[in-house]
Structures are given as structure tokens and as C-alpha cells.
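Journal club side-thread
Mid-discussion, someone asked how the predicted structure for our own chain would compare to the paper's figures. Pasting it here so we can look after the session.
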Amino acid sequence: MPKACPSCGTKVVREGAYYFCPNALSCRAQLIGRIAHYASRRALDIAGLGGETVKELVDKGMIKSVADLYRLTVDDVKWLNGFAAKSANQLYAAIQRAKTARLDRFLYALGIAGVGEHAAQAVAAHFRTLDALDMASPEEIRQAKDIGTATSRSISEFFRDKENRRVLLQLRKAGLVVSEMPTRRGPGPLDGKVFVFTGTLARFKRDEAQRLVEELGGRVTSSVSAKTDFVVAGHDPGSKLEEARAHGVRTIDEKEFERLVRLRG
């Protein structure tokens, strides 16, 4: 393990089993990673904003935080490597579409330590609006389903950090609107059901299918176990289909999955 961050030279810090660079906002590698994550398909899905483009934007000083993305113009973008007028307009349009984000996707996009898609969904479903979550205590955040002490503390500390609050304010000023979660009356029709997807789906993107399950109260995991309720098998499903049979888990194809979520949604 290096004593200093290979990117910015800051002395690394150990926390539990992990070592990390504490220079989050000034570390080039972390800034690039955070913005690329923010733009990723499962976060705010800004098509055309890949890692190499983010690196170039950072290295040219054009973006220093995620809020700077929304200040980019078509003229800024079209001079980047690999871009021309058409692709610059497409990226600009994708960034503008990302000015509206539902709370769960926005939370995931922020890259808060310990907050994956499932935790973001659970917290968003509990608080429903960003304003309600904004000043919640760790104890209040722990009331969200499946949220433990470490994750609740991490979320609370993120929203209390002065620099993070400055960036969130910049995002609002840039026109970002975080929409509230839809209201659900009573338990979801898939509450407690655990899904695993395997193979390639024809009708759904994988993250879209996962979001449908979560919106109906279910949960998606990456591995098959005796606790799995459904394995959805697409084209070329691989070993997970055999694991499902070994555990006696019900397997369904994509058409049956679609009927399941459409009828219960």
C-alpha cells in the first residue's frame, strides 16, 4: 500500500480495512471518478460522457465539480477530442436532460460512501424528497428499510459537510431539479421478493428491469441462493440458471417477467 496517493500525493488514511485519499475535492483521480459515476447509466445516465471525456474536461479546467457539467456549452464540448458539432449537441442535450433527476437516482449519483443503488432506493422511498432528507439525523435515516448505522452516518455526514452543501447549492442554481419519489399506499406488490437476472434481456435494459422490481417493493441481488424467489433468464443465461435449479428457485423468462411487473405495477 502506498503511503501517498498516486494521483495527488496526499498522505493516505486508513479506516477499518480500507485505505483512502482524504483529499476528495482536490484529488484529480477522485474528481474524475466522481463525475464519471454521476454520469453513468445507473446514475443520471448522461450518454456520451465517458471516462476519457471527463478526464479531458478536468485536465482542461472546464469542470471542478459535478455542478460545472451544467455550465458547459455546445462550443465548449465540440473542441474536445472525438467531438464534432453533432456529437457536441447530443452531449449537451443529454446533460440538459439530466437537470431533472428522481431522488433515488440522484442519491446514488452523488457517490456517498456506502450508498449503492439499493440503499439509495430505500432512503429515497422513506424520505421521498431531498428537502426532507437534507437535515435528517443518523437516527432518522436509520429508520429507512435495510439501512444500518454506518450508512446512515455516512449520509448524514455528507449532507452536513460544508463543501458538499456548496456543491448542492451550485447544482440547484444551475437548474437541477430533484423530483420526489412517487407515493405508494401500503406494501408494494413485490414486497420481500428477491430477483436475480441472468443473460441478456431483449425488452429491458438491466438497470430498467431492476428499477421496476424495486419500485414494486422487491429487491435485486447478483447471486442465487435459497432466499431467491425468481431468476429471470434472458438470452445466454450462464451458470446462474443451473444454480437456480439446484436451489429449487423458480425461473421465468423475460415475457413472464414483463407480465409480472406490468400486472402488479
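Post-session note: DSSP finds 13 helices and eight strands in the chain.
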